[in-house]
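agent> step 3/5: call structure_predict on target 'D-inositol 3-phosphate glycosyltransferase' (Pseudarthrobacter enclensis).
agent> reason: downstream docking stage needs a structural representation; sequence fetched in step 2, passing through unchanged.
tool.input:
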Amino acid sequence: MRILLWHVHGSWTDAFVRGRHEYLLPVLPEGGAWGLGRAGRNWPASVREVDLAALDADSVDAVVLQRPEEIGEVTRILGRTPGRDLPAVFVEHNTPKGDFPFTRHPLADQHTIPIVHVTHFNRLAWDNGSAVSTVIEHGIPDPGHLYTGELPDLGVVVNEPVRRGRVTGTDLLPAFASVAPLQVFGMKTEGLAVATGIPTDRLTPRGDLKTAELHRELARCRVYVHPMRWTSLGLSLLEAMHLGMPVVALAATEAPRAVPAEAGAVSADIDELLRCARRLVANPEEARRRGAAAREAALERYGLGRFQDSWDQLLADLGSSLSATHRPEERILVPARERKTP
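tool.output (status=ok):
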């Protein structure tokens, strides 16, 4: 199949485009959210950058939507309406914002585009109405068992921890820094020491490293800390588990399902998490043993093969279900994107 999708969520896309299809990624000269293309990623040759305005509409077999505005964009430029005359599915990456647990999904109650949630918690948390919804859990390209744990540090991966604050558990970092020095990886980690009051000798912002370097450097840390309060299941957590790292995670959203007890600790009791982190830092052999359990669990539930098989089945069903689910009287009410066409 030739599948159209925007490069929105880099880590999820990294797994998705390693499948058995041809993937068409819109690109614009200025890049940005609507034209990122491959963005220099080392992806298979089956991933092609395309000028959406010049794309032959009939060459697209299906579209994987990730933002409601994409429905109107595809209709306007290609002249084919997702869910009507173009097989389509909507991937929901995020936990709901706003009036939880009453937050309505933008595609709630329509019957032409199925909603695929990346975690069971997300499906439960969103009000999908009568829309068809399902779950395809994350898949991770296995980076290998790289864990050394040679540094008695705690590793954290979080993007924009200063701006996102309590959402990402940034306020919890000083407590963890009292246990062991922190290495914090991710975008816009500068200014984190000032924002949290953590002494610079207890916190090292590592910035946004390339994937291979991130895996190598993160795997040197003794323990992985996942302090997220209200984010969808972070792929960095699953990557750390694949690396063979022991995990100390806040028991929020999907983390209790993803992290088995033998991999470390999952709890809403911060003191319990701190005790476990302290014990693992002081006991490298226990840390290594629990990291091996984390890797085993991650490979079983979040392996790339299972992820690709699930998506292949869903994509195969899209075309055949299009005519069966078509209801001419229905309208998909989503906001149009306001921007000038380049």
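agent> step 4/5: record observation. Confidence is low (pLDDT under 50) at residues 323-342.
agent> proceeding.
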